Structures are given as C-alpha cells and as structure tokens.
C-alpha cells in the first residue's frame, strides 16, 4: 500500500475509534453519524467537524474506489495527513478541564457575614461563590442573583438589616443551582459531558467545581461555568 495512504487510513481509523468511545460504542458506528453526534457535545470535534467530514469523503474514495493494486482514484496530500494526525493527537491527549477553569477560586464559610460576601462580589466582579461548612464540606453556591432575591424578600419599609446575616441564611433562596464536581485532572471531554448530560436531563448546571479528588469535601482548585466553555471553542479554533 502507498505509504501516504496507509498513514491516512491508520490515523483515520484511530479517530473513528475515538468517536466510538465518545459515544459509548453505539450500534450505528458510521463515521459521519458519530461525527455529527460528537459535534453537539465536544469542542474539539465541533472545531474540526467540516475538516473531518471532508476527510471521510476522501477515505471512502480511497477504500471503495480503488482502481487497481496501489492505484487509487484519490490520494491524500501530505499536509492532509499531518492535519489529521494533529487532530488525532488532540483526541489522544485532550486538554485538562483545569485549563479552562477560573483559578484561584474564592470561597467562603457558612458563617461569613453577608456584607463581606457582597463586598467580594463588587470587588472581584464574580457572580458566584462556593460556600463551605466549618468542616470544609460543600454547602452550596451563593450567587448575586440569590442575594438580590433574598434582599427583595427580607426588606422592611425599604430597609434591610445585615448585621447578623450570614452566607448560610441566603443559600435557601438559591433556585436550581445545580453544581457538580470533577477531579482537577479530568479532561475537557469529561467537563463537556457533564454539561451535556445536565442539558439532556433538563437540569440547569450552574457550575462544575474542580477539586484534587473530585470530592465535594475537598476545597476547590478551579470552577467552570457555561461561560467558561466558550473559551474551549475559542482556544481550539485559534489552534486549528
């Protein structure tokens, strides 16, 4: 077999295997079908979708339209093989979720005064903070929307007393603040899978908190929101 064709086919088949894994080995393992499914869930595939779809056409021409022996109706250019190999290497070693997370994570304890948390919102321009118990167990995600909701429910004659109000007093008004946890070493595929699953379950995932062990009982080393996922697409596009 022509060396350049062999390199192309081997790399293409390895990418096909990755697509099967990303889709839990469905019965229909047609390359383009898997590509379409993966595009909806994973940034790496989304960025390279059109490119891989064209490579699939080339692969079909090589496999099904061979004229004779090592004479093919189409032969990939060396640059095409190199581009395919770059995509394959990205799938072999996808970026870590931590690369796209906000670090370092600001967090507070349940007994932190609400006035102090509000100052942090204003000072750092962050819209949400994880809250922990004294034993360092995750208690909930406190958001600026939640604080506004609590203030609207607790004013008297236009005045609000904050002297004795703590973060834990506000957490009960937080609505649908779904949070999940991942190991800091998890890949961007693991991260995107969490958000995709929550979407399929009609459950709004507000954030994924990254800890060393993936346990809620560990302090956060990074936090990823839906806004941070935009950075995934942008980086992949810049590297393409």
TrEMBL record:
Keywords recorded for this protein, A-Z: CBS domain
Keyword presence, Electron transport: no
Entry annotated with the keyword Cytoplasm: no
Domain of life according to the entry: Bacteria
Domain CBS positions: 101-157, 175-239
SUPFAM superfamilies with a match to the protein in the record: CBS-domain pair
The protein's name in its UniProt record: CBS domain-containing protein
């Amino acid at each position: 077999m022509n060396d350049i064709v062999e390199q192309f086919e081997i790399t293409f088949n390895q990418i096909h295997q990755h697509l099967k894994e990303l889709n839990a080995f469905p019965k229909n393992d047609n390359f383009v079908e898997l590509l379409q499914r993966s595009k909806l869930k994973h940034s790496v595939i989304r960025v390279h979708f059109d490119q891989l779809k064209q490579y699939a056409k080339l692969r079909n021409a090589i496999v099904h339209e061979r004229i004779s022996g090592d004479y093919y109706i189409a032969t990939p250019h060396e640059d095409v093989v190199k581009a395919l190999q770059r995509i394959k290497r990205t799938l072999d070693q996808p970026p870590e979720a931590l690369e796209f997370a906000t670090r370092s994570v600001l967090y507070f304890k349940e007994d932190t005064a609400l006035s102090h948390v509000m100052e942090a919102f204003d000072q750092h321009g962050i819209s949400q903070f994880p809250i922990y118990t004294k034993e360092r167990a995750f208690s909930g995600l406190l958001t600026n929307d939640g604080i506004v909701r609590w203030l609207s429910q607790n004013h008297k004659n236009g005045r609000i007393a904050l002297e004795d109000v703590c973060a834990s007093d506000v957490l009960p008004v937080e609505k649908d603040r779904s949070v999940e946890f991942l190991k800091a070493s998890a890949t961007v595929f693991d991260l995107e899978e969490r958000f995709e699953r929550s979407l399929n379950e009609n459950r709004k995932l507000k954030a994924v908190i990254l800890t060393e062990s993936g346990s809620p009982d560990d302090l956060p080393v990074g936090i990823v929101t839906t806004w941070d996922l935009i950075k995934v697409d942008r980086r992949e596009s810049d590297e393409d």
